[in-house]
Target: KipI family sensor histidine kinase inhibitor
Amino acid sequence: MRVLSYGDRALLVECDGLAGARRAHRMLEERRIDGVTELVPGGRTVLVRVDTRVTGLTHLDHWVRSVLSRLDESEPMRGEGARGGVPGGDAPGGAVVSIPVVYDGEDLADVASAWGCSVDEVVVRHAATEWVCAVVGFAPGFPYLVPAGAGGGANELPPVPRRATARQRVPAGAVALAAEYCGVYPRESPGGWQLIGSTDAVLWDARREPPALVTAGTRVRFEPARAVVRDVSQESSGTTAGNTGVGGRAVGRTPENRHAHASEVERIDGKERDEGAAVLRLLEPGVLTLVQDLGRPGLAAIGVGASGAFDRAAHRLANRLVGNDESAAGLEVLLVGAALELPAGAWVAVTGADGPVTLNDAPVARAHPVRAERDGAVLRIGPAARGVRYYVAVRGGIAVESVLGSRSRDTLAALGPHPVRAGDELIVGGAVAGPVPAIDLVPVDAPTIDHAELDVRPGPRLDWFTPDAWHRMLHAEWTVSSRADRTGVRLDGPTLDRRPEFAGRELASEGMTAGAIQVSPDGVPTILGPDHPVTGGYPVIAVVTDDTLDRLAQLRPGAHVRLRLATGRP
Model:
């Protein structure tokens, strides 16, 4: 067992295999101490996230080592095979989930080459294998399946290397291989696995209990099909899986359903709310406007990331300026701005990116609360001159329906409220914490235009890279790529080379965190954002410190970035 540094908010426990990682996860969970916010199991690791305001990293390290010093003495988990480590008996009643597959993946030939066989034999061997879910990660409902137990040649499937460069879009239902794992993509998302087939089985539905079709310990059989067979028993009518809201939208009322609700009472988080409640109306939503709060941490074990506002400081400030609780839901507005119609008496504040903001055509000072004096007052946010994301808070917050404890939109997982559209009406909530502060000036600098410095600390896989790669990372001037969104920000610059002994090596998928700098096999780094995959298989060379992570949200493509080694103890 090794305990590895993971930036300034986490440690990574590395075990000798899947069975050891599952025992470590169980023991740490049973003995969890205050301050430990999340335990994320991986293929052979456990990521331990911590709130350092409660428990410091030094104390966390001592606790982890103390708990796991008894790991070898613990009893094997039920269902672990004699070959070390494939869990198998955890599914209730020993249930097996059957998933129909059309073997039409565009990487079948590459898999056949890696296995040294024909494409037809890849299909036969894959379908003949019984699989078991080791962990759920990457995205909600994404199962990491390994061959179950022993016998029948099931454990003889060779590992399959990930793609050198991940695809930006893998379709929902894609059946794929990477390293020793098989997985099924629950929805369209980026991915670097080798695609061998497709299915219409619904892997994730937030309204289902449990939401994931496959959970840790579930056995899975893939059934070849000539056409994709839809399992209607796993689907629900109405909204797309994972998206909830009134009338299929995440807002209180829309142009389509406004009349249908004219004499009804809406329910928000189990509480009835009169139809006459104050609302914001979206006149112009811009290119992307999302409802965000501070996220849904603590659910990574079922593949659900924290998400939440990208620029947390700007989100919190906007809420404080109107007297809200800092966690109240507001709007995250991308780059070109938006226009809102306000109810009389509404207090609003706009923070984050810097650009023209007006209320009924009168200029509004940057990061300053302003009140609508009449119904229909128009708050107009223009294109950002600096930064990328505006944050809009209304006194009381936005009371859309929460999903798994949060009103945030997770763009990777498609959880939470849909992006808002023109005509949507957002109900104003009651998340008031105090009076609107009497202020004249908020001394907050606008985001920089074309450069930024981000502090970093060593990541758990620094030893995979050459000393020269580490030196280049810290001394190069990087450029923000056009491949930048809430999932991650890719950096263009020099190649970060691996040590010879790690060249071409596959990493068992392990827990990820916002700010982690993953390096793909082509040597290109990507800094993960709030909607990052829960787990990943590219090594993390460094981690952006929590104090400077918010700057990432405001970096435009083409901006120059320097990564600076943080000093002092985290």
